[in-house]
From TrEMBL:
It comes from Candidatus Nomurabacteria bacterium RIFCSPLOWO2_01_FULL_33_17. Residues 9-213 form the Smf/DprA SLOG domain. InterPro entries: DprA, DprA_WH, DrpA_SLOG, WH-like_DNA-bd_sf. Residues 228-276 form the DprA winged helix domain. This is DNA protecting protein DprA. SUPFAM superfamilies: MCP/YpsA-like. GO terms for biological process: DNA-mediated transformation. Pfam families: DNA_processg_A (PF02481), WHD_DprA (PF17782).
Amino acid sequence: MQIRELPYNEIPQKLKDISQPAKRLFVCGEIHKNENKNLVIVGSRKHSSYGKQVLCDIIAGLVGYPINIISGLALGIDTLAHEQALKHGMTTISFPGSGLANSSLHPQTNIRLAEKIVESGGCLFSEFTPDFKATQYSFPQRNRLMAAYSDAVLIIEAEEKSGTLITARLAMEYNRDLLVVPGSIYSETSRGTNYLINQGATPVLSAKDVLLALGFDVKTKNERNDISDEEHIILSILREPMSRDEIIRECDNPPEEVNSLLMIMELRGLITEDAGYFRKT
């Protein structure tokens, strides 16, 4: 990947309008000078299946809107955010906590992902020299640039003492919208996010909440009128993700009829199955 240092006057203004501005900036790829909103998505490196599903659903709901997905290339939620943006043809931008040379890029397992980001028309930013290897302090230092570059920061799962909370604090300091996905009170990866909501962050329950926070006019989808009575029953049962056996136990119909109905509903896009659990789309 070709790395170049930006002249100071080409460094994005947002990165210079903070208390600790970027004085140098290296880039790989194309810098987009579009009117897209910048949504930073960060979270736990040890995300749960719930966090993964929420992230996939939210990004799918943002498709078609002028939004850049920004993250830090780290394992976990960061990696998923970049991958889902690429899957849906959205522009994605990364701020690694290291230099941009392949020999120093962190984490090394995401070198190919970084290349895909650049190949798809996105870019990588770093204020560290290309051969700089990540250190304990370089990640918080990087976080301030992500927060500054954003229009809103979305946090999906964070432990109580997570570095993600540093990005959250900086987002509030820079007057960016702080959006947080709530989680179970019993989940370690939701303690940080639930704390942020308690402190006044905006809870996010769907992609619509993100779009509204970014200032988009969201039109409500028309209700489908082609759903049968049997399908309505299944949808009413699926108040939360359920296994096939749980759905069959809730229904009065024979198991073979329920299995057939589930297959038809999945083909019609009414429900989806992931890791053995069905949920409404």
